[in-house]
Amino acid sequence: MCLFSTLALAQSDDCANAPLIGPGTYAADGPFTGNGNTQADADNADWYVFDPSQSGYITISSCGNGVVDTRVNVHSGSCGSLVLLGQDDDGCPLGYPPGNSLLPNIEVVPGISYYIEWDDRWSGLNFDWELLFHTCPVPLPPSIVATDTTLEVSWTVNAPGATFSVELVPAGDPQGSGTTVSGIVGVDGPPVLFSGLGPGEAYDVYLTQSCSGDPSPDLGPWPTGTTGNPLVANDDCTGAIPLVCGDTVQGSTAPALDDAVPGCGTSISAPGIWYSFVGIDGSATLSTCNSANFDTKINVYSGDCASLVCEGGNDDGPDCGLTSELTVVTSAGTDYFVLVQGYDGEQGEFTLALSCNTCVAPLNVSVSTGDTLALVNWTGGDPGSSFTIEYGADGFIPGSGTTIGGVVGTDGPPVLITGLPPNSELDIYLVHDCGNGDVSTVTGPVSFSTSADPLAANAFCATALPISCGTTVTGDTQAGLNAIAPTCASANVTSKGLWYAFTGTGTDVSLATCGQAGYDTKISVFSGGCNALVCEAGNDDAVGCGGNTSELLFFAENGVPYLVLVHGFNAAAGPFSLSMDCTPPCGNVPPNDDCDNSFAITPLPIGDCSAAVTASNVCAYSSPLPNPPCDPYANIADVWFVLNTGFDPDHTLEIDAVTADPIHVAIYEACGLLTYLDCFMDVTDPIPLNGLPLNTDLYIRVWNGGGTEAGSFTLCDQAPLSTAVMADRSESLLVFPIPASDRLHVQGIPQGTQNIELLDLEGRLVMEQRPGNGVLVMRVGDLPGGTYLLRAVGTSIRPVRVVIH
After folding, report:
1. Which residues pair with 511 in a beta bridge?
2. How many domains does the chain have?
3. H or E element: which one contains 583?
4. Which of 16, 83, 288, 389 could form a disulfide with 607 if both were Cys (CB 3.0 to 4.6 A apart)?
5. Within a domain: residue 588?
6. Which of 315, 331, 357 corresponds to the end of one domain?
7. Which segments of 611-721 are extended strands (E)?
């Protein structure tokens, strides 16, 4: 059932005087006065209140306006204690612009007032909006996945067993004139696939469902379209033309359209066209070298077209002028996708050659030099295969130079070449021999030059100079070498550096070039020795350090040797002073200072942060982990939290500063490999996390630069959990993840529960905890693996079988 009427009542500028309304259309004069807002990023609001006479859903929409950028909030409760149920900014089919709002399926029950707040986050202009009441939920929002010949329409199942209707109509044609697919929700769809479509075509989607003959509102059309360019078959990744090793093809990017894909090795700067190939165990070389009438680029990806994974890219290849060539390592049976595009918008004709080799060529060659020596490093090559390096004066003919050979993994990389002439220009070529006549392609020429001045004594890790507490040393990295070392935090090694060494004494150690260098510095700290470097801390740009200089703080264990590398951003090098200060360890280091000790947070109902966690990053050490992509250069003084998504794909993080300023947040899926998901800088508003995988641990990294920025904050995770009333009607507890290895989350605990007990299969009590707020987290990591029963003492809820491993 859907109730609707046309009404025109004035709104109120504050909650207390909100007019009582029913379903219908309303003309809001615009939230431009009154200061009645509830959200910190707004100033004013227009208010209405709805009291349902029966249970069902309401949907609020300004989609028909088409002009004004609106935002809507819906609350329950009373004006003195509102509970936010939902918010929408740009949810209408057209999105932003124009930025109209659509908030569907707010569940309502008689006896509770629901307050509708339109605020001026974006605009205070007048607009029309509508309130719909319905007893069958709308199947929104739709998710549409497009290829050049198909459209797949999906949505969140919210009415299992209902009937659905999805109509696909060519854009501009009337509803009812298209192709309709109907069925049973949860049986015949979602998803619903429309196939046999043409590339680059525009469509409208209409989506409704019916619950026992009671239809949901029709809120379409939702505009969409197939991918592809009808003029170019391989304009999109999904239409990539397949190649095989040894192929040479001609192509033109002139009629191509822009590609919305991430850069890889080189940026996406012009329309391009796509090819694909299946890899072998070895390498593949893609080349337009001297075979194009424009400045080309090549990008190579693996994965699939919906989730491309960068393998490499090139703009200008060696001896190729403004054309391109690159080699990537490949695996047998893996699909690879190749994008040929141009520099700075250039388009034109090209010839692309694909060659494959089971013996991988030397890749990513780098040369760092002194006056009479060069340190050569590269990747690729199987351990046990042999390598040959040939070098000589700039422009020498291969075969006439000096050669060095060895075994990969034993004699190099890296390889140190000595006896070179100072202040000279030279070239180098490299090749791998995998045995039995299997020889790689030749890499080179790679050009380099020696310096006129000798290296510093501490240019090598093995000759690091001593540094000690309370001292300052000086140096000039122009007399150093590019170290072969891992990335510590923001301090990836890209320039020449100098080495220092000390032994820890159980103190906090500060190392700084802060304001003491003539270039953009970096500092890396390692343990483990020169042949097995382990990151302990790293920094590029520290808070309050002018000129992009560096400072870091870490705990140096007593008796442990440490190595310090001073280097620079990109190729920057120059003079510096490095200071080392030692202080007693901070007595309040946060217990969740590293990811492995993340503090578990329990989801709370939407609008309820009464049990928010209070935390602090005061005394947090500089992190050795890679910086989040949204803050690539700063010092990271971080603390970690973990939440399990449970049965709710949509969560909202609310993080409020107390004394910390600013606050930044990143989300990861795992600690060991730091599987990065998203990043948020200067957080002041709630962070929506939508479409999350169910029963999955997410790791939350909260940080700033430390020092004067460090401080306390509160953190709250909100999700649409079952309320206490709903829990009383439940037949079982919600328990996740299953199986559990560390933490077991329990939701839907009814009022009156005395304890939550965990029993083994012989009925013996192995753990019990008192519940709070209808949710609970049990630490089960120390229990033996096996099957257990979990029960809510004092209720009639059935026990739940859980598995622990």
Report:
1. 552, 580
2. 7
3. strand 575-583
4. 83
5. no
6. 357
7. 613-616, 637-644, 651-657, 664-668, 676-680, 687-689, 697-704, 712-719
